[in-house]
Design brief:
By secondary structure, the chain is α/β, with parallel strands linked by helices. Helix content is 50%, strand content 13%. The chain has two domains: 10-161, Rossmann fold, CATH 3.40.50; 198-288, N-(1-d-carboxylethyl)-l-norvaline Dehydrogenase, domain 2 (Orthogonal Bundle). The chain has 13 helices and eight strands. The protein has an eight-stranded mixed sheet with strand order 3-2-1-4-5-6-7-8, with helices on both faces. α5 links the parallel β5 (90-93) and β6. The protein is elongated, with a radius of gyration of 24 Å. The protein binds NADP nicotinamide-adenine-dinucleotide phosphate.
Length: 294
Amino acid sequence: MSSSSTNSDVTVIGLGLMGGALADALLAAGHRVTVWNRTPGKAADLVSRGALLADSADAAVTASPVTLACVSDYTALRQVLDPGALDGRVLVNLTSGDSAQARDTARWVERPGAVYLDGAIMAVPPVIGTPEAVILVSGPQAAFDTHRALLDALGTATYLGADQGLSALYDVAGLSMMWSVLNGWLQGVALLRTAGVDASVFTPFATLMAQGTAGWLDGYAEQVDSRKFPPDDATLATHAGGLAHLVEESERLGVNAELPRVFAALVDRAVAAGQEGESYAALIDQFARPSRSA
Ligand SMILES: NC(=O)c1ccc[n+]([C@@H]2O[C@H](COP(=O)([O-])OP(=O)(O)OC[C@H]3O[C@@H](n4cnc5c(N)ncnc54)[C@H](OP(=O)(O)O)[C@@H]3O)[C@@H](O)[C@H]2O)c1
């Protein structure tokens, strides 16, 4: 059926693993949902639960005041959507991408009456619809506030600011934290396995270290923001000594020393730049610039 005459609360474009979970959560929350997918068969279950299947992406968009899009990437998004159909409507794009793509898409979409919110989903499909699913959203706040109830049906909707690039930036910044913890843990596991210590034995201590380190971040954030780096805990010279031990131990035991060498090189450069008496937070100067070639 054509949905151009329907009057649903929300449209979902893209019914893959994630888009299907979004539509499912919206139906479960009692919303009237119009859906469209390039491969229409993926809508069958949703339709059996009350979703309206549109016969084109344009018809789907015009069926609701707000459209959630969740396709593979921004190229697919532009193939699917006609910005003209968004006149007077809000697009919440939950497709993963980078901040430049988000800002470009905001310019592509925005016209009088059309509003663009960009989002990032920090969750896997099975937890969509629960508080565990964090949905980061950036763009015009009035649109976020108006459609907050819809976004809350998906998980914990978190507004970041007016710049549409922010959700993609928070996405990668958050993943940087995740990979840093995981890689540090794997380095420790590899070191301890050389002494016959299983990962499961090391992990309670590793967890304490990760939690303790996370507790330093608020204080270090104040140092970075104020650009004052008093060595309240340890100087960069002390860290340089410790990192040399990590590199040497890894090399001697025959485990991968690439990550420790990167850590050590960053601290060594800061020490060479005269920051040996400052705190670890002073390393922001090594991160906030383009990387050097090896
Ligand atoms: N799955 C996760 O755990 C997860 C977590 C966070 C964020 N995300 C993000 O959510 C987005 C969707 O992920 P997913 O897991 O749902 O992927 P998926 O299961 O592979 O689904 C991809 C969706 O994009 C559609 N699509 C792809 N290319 C298209 C094109 N050229 N024209 C029209 N439709 C097109 C597919 O349509 P067809 O059905 O017709 O192929 C399908 O609806 C991605 O950006 C992903 O990074 C996913």
